Amino acid sequence: MHLTLRFGEPLQTRTACLVLGAFTDHWQEPALRELDRLLDSRLQAARRSGEFTGKANELLLLQPGSPLPAQRILLVGLGPRRQAGLEQLRQAAGTVAGHLHGKRLSDLACTLPQLEVPRTSPAARIEAVTEGLLLAGYRFDRYRTDSERPKGVGPRKTWLLLDRNANRLEAAAALERAQIVARAVNLARDLVNEPGNIKSPAYLAEQARVAAAAAGFGCSVLGRDELQREGCGALLGVAQGSIREPCLIILDYRGAAEDEAPVALIGKGVVFDAGGISLKPAEKMDEMKMDMAGGAAVIATLLAAALLKLPVNLVGVVPAVENLPSGSAIRPGDILTSLSGQTIEVINTDAEGRLIMADALTYVRRYKPRLAVDVATLTGACTIALGQHASAVLGNDPALVQALRMAGERSGERLWELPLWAEYEQQIKSEVADVKNTGGRPAGTITAAAFLQRFAAGLKWAHLDIAGTAWIDQARPCHPKGASGVGVRLLTTFLREQVQKQS
Ligand code: BES
Ligand code: MN
Ligand code: ZN
To answer: For atom 17 of ligand 1, which residue has the closest CA?
Structure first.
């Protein structure tokens, strides 16, 4: 979708489709009042009949005819004004883009950033609307050769229509920032949607290299031999059931002074999780190609941070492996020696994520990060606890957890904290090794985090479990079905806010 800024009066704008927002309880907006007058009270009638009341994500398409230069008017609802925020704006924009997807309009003029949404700045509104439009327009259709594949993706040109008095420099910068973020989210989605036959660990590494080259940050990749030399026994243990070579992808972005400690981001990169010898049931196993969504979020966040030129140093680490059953796979009962030196009894080979993340967390310590955030589709239990509407956050530093939660609210990628009390460590005590890799069914998300915490000792650390949020099976305003790209907007927002706090 091609997005540009334009300045002028909505009702005097010549366009194939003019988009206007409306709240349920605030029909006094001058543009709406004027429109209602020009259309002989058509809006009031729609409201009275319940055809369009301004409820969140409600749509009404009008063909006004002569009184207006716009060929069509598309009204979109934002719900009650008091409750509205950036997320409603994002969703309204997403609903519009979703509605117009596949329809070939010559252009679209979207006035949503002009809407007076309480507690929002003009720049933040431009960002939210841009994100909504670009995220909703995403499709993963590169493998569709059939004739039903929708061709024209939407309007040929999309204008963000701003007030003549708007700060044009600030608006252009906001548009560019949001375009970068949306590009990064859609990269993460592409990586996650990519099928397992294509998506080997090497493929993931190659895509990371491409992103690094595009944005000018560093990327190096450790293969099996190097991982062996390092002593990444937990990661290698998971990998040994697959003929595909595992790797550790290391990304390095320097946006701040050389001597400033980096922020470390660690993302689970299981390119396909069949469960190993503890094989998963067939139902929905296809979705386990998404088990590298944490890794995708890390790669894409580095891309976004570098393109945004954030003044921060970042190191991203993605352990990439495939978890398959085979004659060479690890067995339940095996004991692995991790990079940290701690030994791990493997109770269930399907709890592989924490094994590879353990080594990745240990690996990242050498960068002496000022804080570390890991992102992983770690536990099915997280989906049971929070469903698709929040990722879980757990950590050893309340201020870090709080900062992440704030970024979650702001970005619309919400987090909910679960406790990491010492009592839970009982569940992962082993008789024969230092720790075991499962803690039974109770509090599955917490015991997985308690396992990781052992490898984050001494780090200011937080863990995000995105098992429930990385894959969407019911389309939403800004999310077609499939990969959500979750984590990218959250982490980018978090990094931007970290930077602001420091300066
Ligand atoms: N990748 C899965 C977790 C998952 C499940 C992500 C569903 C997304 C949707 C992870 O590797 C796993 O299999 N976890 C096990 C752990 C258990 C064996 C302790 C689980 O959640 O069942
Ligand atoms: Mn698993
Ligand atoms: Zn997994």
So the answer is: 351
> Residues lining ligand 1, judged by CB closer than 6 Å?
273, 291, 348, 350-353, 377, 379-381, 383, 438, 444, 467
Query: Quick check: is 55 catalytic?
Result: no
Residue pLDDT, tens place only, 68-119? 999 999 999 999 999 999 999 999 999 999 999 888 899 999 999 999 999 9
> Helix, strand, or coil here: 445?
helix
The answer to whether the predicted template modeling score (pTM) of the entire model surpasses 0.85 is yes
Residue 127: helix, strand or coil by DSSP? Answer: helix
| Nearest atom of ligand 1 to the alpha carbon of 381 | 21
Ligand 1 atom nearest to CA at 270: 1
Coil, strand, or helix at residue 322?
A: strand
Q: Where are the beta strands (DSSP E) in 216-306?
A: 218-222, 247-254, 263-267, 269-273
Given a cut of 80, whether residue 28 has pLDDT beyond it is no
Whole-number pLDDT of residue 154? 77
| Whether pLDDT at 288 is above 90 | yes
Q: What is the pLDDT of residue 24?
A: 94
Q: Across the strands, what pairs with 249?
A: 221, 318
The CATH homologous superfamily to which domain 3-181 belongs is Leucine Aminopeptidase, subunit E, domain 1 (3.40.220.10)
Question: Alpha-carbon Rg of the chain, whole angstroms?
Answer: 24
Euclidean distance between the first and the last CA atom of the chain, given in angstroms as a whole number: 35
354 catalytic residue (yes or no): yes
| Separation of CA 350 and ligand 2 centre (Å) | 4
Residue spans of the domains in the chain: they are 3-181, 199-502
- What's the 360 CA to ligand 3 centre distance in angstroms? 15
Contact yes or no for 272/196 (Cβ under 8 A): yes
Centre of ligand 2 from the C-alpha of residue 471, in Å: 15
Closest atom, ligand 1, to C-alpha of 382: 21
Compute the distance between CA of residue 394 and CA of residue 448 in angstroms, rounded to an integer. 10
Ligand nearest to the CA of 290: 1
Structure letter (DSSP) for residue 236: H
pLDDT in tens, 380-428: 999 999 999 999 999 999 999 999 999 999 999 999 999 999 999 999 9
Indicate the fold that domain 199-502 takes in CATH: Aminopeptidase (3.40.630)
Dist. CA 290–CA 194, nearest whole Å: 8
